Amino acid sequence: MIDFNNKSVFKLKQNNEFAEKVTALLLDDETVIDSYKSMRDGVVFTNKRIIAVNVQGITGSKKDFTSLPYKNIVAYSVETSGTFDLDSELEIYLSSVGKVRFEFTGSTAIVDISKHISLSIL
């Protein structure tokens, strides 16, 4: 599992590369909402959960997939981008893991993501 205490901020940019990497993990009724990539790692938002992908090793062939189901989120906070600050942020508080923070650069479907979280926890 990713150590979110030491790696709590992901600087992510929209990229479909990681959506393809998690296809085998998806349930039959699960669909990808959006996919993001940092330098090596990635995050995929589905209609049921967040899948954080930690790429390990020199070659990057070893990967750790952490599933964060929306149903375990007890609270979340969204900060949208502004005129001069183009970054947006998502902080989620999970009952079993604690706080996880994602920072997005560039274009983001943060509103769509927050709607899916709300549908799952409210």
Automatic annotation (TrEMBL):
This is PH domain-containing protein. It comes from the Bacteria. InterPro entries: PHb, PHb_sf. Residues 11-118 form the Bacterial Pleckstrin homology domain. It comes from Alishewanella maricola. Transmembrane segments: none annotated. It holds the Pfam family bPH_1.
